[in-house]
Design a protein that fits this description.
By secondary structure, the chain is α/β, with parallel strands linked by helices. It is built from eight helices and eight strands. Strand 6 and strand 7 form a beta hairpin.
């Protein structure tokens, strides 16, 4: 019997609260519980419906996008044109150069001349084509100059010939080679003196391996130009010991820093400088 009782019904509620203070909160809660339950069910149903609608809408949008992509791919495939055949049909560009015929260049413009023949009574057999007598009208109409012979490989423009005659050929003068002195009033000096120069050589010389194996040693005499700026100029070996030692001596000399340049009459000049470069193996006598 208790199972068939509806606890939310009005009869059950009135029976429970009969003779009690109905203004108490419990009565009001039970009175409105049915409405709250119904509203909750409606909200839950509506929420589920909205979620299902959103899911279906999202799936539909995904389907539409996928179909659009498929249509785009299909349209791209239809528009694709096979250009391989067109490329084969196109004639290859011939790398030909159009050579223009250049007129024969004469060493200079020569004025054409017309031979003026002097009249003389001679035998007919002695008359040649070159001696053809031109009439005065022909000579007046032509712009060609008069001379002792016919010449038609030049130009009739006399101003051109005058321009050529007035041309002046200017030859460029080659710069004179600066003098290099052997001895000057103030010889070039290495910064710090000869002691620093020898120190530099000993610390920078790399003894050639082949010379070490062959036990080659000695003193290479090198001459080089100290320019007016103090830089190292031309370098040469004046006394050789060994090819490898000579090369190493030249290399070290070319690496020297700037000298204090030599001077003549108070002016810096180029000066030859002689330097012995000693190669000595350790332990050798």
């Amino acid at each position: 019997m208790a199972k068939d009782v509806d606890l939310s019904s009005k009869e059950w509620r009135d029976l429970i609260f009969e003779g009690r203070n109905k203004e108490y909160g419990a009565y009001e809660l039970r009175q409105k519980s049915a409405g709250r339950h119904n509203k909750s069910m409606i909200i839950v149903v509506i929420g589920l419906a909205l979620i299902m609608g959103l899911v279906l809408l999202f799936q539909e949008v995904q389907r539409i996008i996928a179909e659009a992509d498929i249509k785009d791919e299909a349209s791209q495939e239809l528009v694709t044109i096979d250009t391989s055949a067109a490329e084969e049909e196109e004639p290859e560009e011939e790398n030909t150069k159009v050579e223009m015929e250049q007129p024969e260049a004469l060493p200079e413009e020569i004025l054409n001349t017309v031979k003026v023949t002097e009249l003389a009574i001679v035998d007919d057999s002695q008359v040649t084509a070159e001696d053809e007598i031109k009439s005065q009208d022909e000579l007046a109409e032509t712009q060609t100059a008069f001379g002792q012979t016919n010449f038609d490989q030049g130009t009739d423009d006399r101003t051109v010939v005058r321009e050529h005659k007035n041309e002046v050929i200017v030859e460029e003068k080659k710069p004179e080679k600066e003098e290099v002195f052997r001895s000057v009033e103030q010889m070039p000096q290495y910064p710090g003196g000869d002691a620093e120069l020898m120190k530099y050589l000993s610390s920078h010389i790399q003894y050639p391996a082949m010379a070490i194996e062959n036990n080659v040693q000695g003193r290479v005499i090198v001459q080089f130009v100290v320019t007016k700026t103090g830089a190292i100029g031309e370098v040469k070996v004046v006394r050789s010991v060994d090819r490898d030692l000579d090369k190493e001596a030249i290399r070290v000399v070319k690496s020297l820093p700037k000298f204090i340049p030599g001077k003549m009459n108070g002016q810096a000049v180029n000066v030859w400088y002689t330097l012995p470069v000693a190669f000595k193996l350790q332990g050798a006598n």
